[in-house]
Amino acid sequence: RKEVEQDPGPFNVPEGATVAFNCTYSNSASQSFFWYRQDCRKEPKLLMSVYSSGNEDGRFTAQLNRASQYISLLIRDSKLSDSATYLCVVGGTGGSYIPTFGRGTSLIVHP
Amino acid sequence: DTEVTQTPKHLVMGMTNKKSLKCEQHMGHRAMYWYKQKAKKPPELMFVYSYEKLSINESVPSRFSPECPNSSLLNLHLHALQPEDSALYLCASSLSRGQRTEAFFGQGTRLTVV
């Protein structure tokens, strides 16, 4: 079983739609959780950190469910510019934070 | 300043060449990473440096040789590469290992081995 799993998609949604991605992780002792965005042929860029209490940044909401070992990203009012690959990143344990990536979920927002 | 700078942005090299990739950050981060990313795949960890010492080598072939001259610089020396080594090489840094802090990535070096 992979450490971090994501549905690769693509998720094809119209502008203005709400879309949600999930990411599951296998190590129950994982401590750090992030969502990164990666555009085609570019480097990953931090979108948001995911805290136990959940967090929101504008149209983006991230949540952590430790009991079920998944994190989620909700995008409201999708824009064309949201089209990208969204990478779930989980950090390790035991004093060792090593970013481990999921395979990414592709989002395509169309007019 | 949350910038990680990688040079060169593009590199084409022959299988007998020796080249180096460079990475620089001035955020005071003490953990630095090399990742390799193939098309439509997530970044795969290659090396981790913590306080200028190599702490993780993910069974990377010896034709890749990392070096951390100081806390701001990270190099990846390349020698006798194979065409299958063609990929995007990403450098990243974070505050330190053992901290729940995010990693920041450079723009990457797109390497083509011919």
Shape of chain A: globular
Largest interface, Cβ cutoff 8 Å? A-B, 23 and 26 residues
Could you name the ranges of chain A where pLDDT drops below 50 across 5 or more consecutive residues?
Answer: none
Helix content of chain A: under 10%
Q: How large, in whole angstroms, is the Cα Rg of chain B?
A: 13 Å
- Topology as H/E string of chain A? EEEEEEEEEEE
Give a brief outline of the structure:
The complex is a heterodimer of chains A (111) and B (114). Chain A is built from no helices and eleven strands.
Q: How are the secondary structure elements laid out?
A:
The complex is a heterodimer of chains A (111) and B (114).
Chain A: E1 4-6, E2 11-14, E3 19-25, E4 32-38, E5 45-49, E6 55-57, E7 60-65, E8 70-75, E9 84-91, E10 100-101, E11 105-110
Parallel strand pairs in A: 2-11
Antiparallel strand pairs in A: 1-3, 3-8, 4-5, 4-9, 6-7, 7-8, 9-10, 9-11
Chain B: E1 4-7, E2 10-13, E3 18-25, E4 31-37, E5 44-50, E6 53-57, E7 64-70, E8 73-79, E9 87-94, E10 104-105, E11 109-113
Parallel strand pairs in B: 2-11
Antiparallel strand pairs in B: 1-3, 3-8, 4-5, 4-9, 5-6, 7-8, 9-10, 9-11
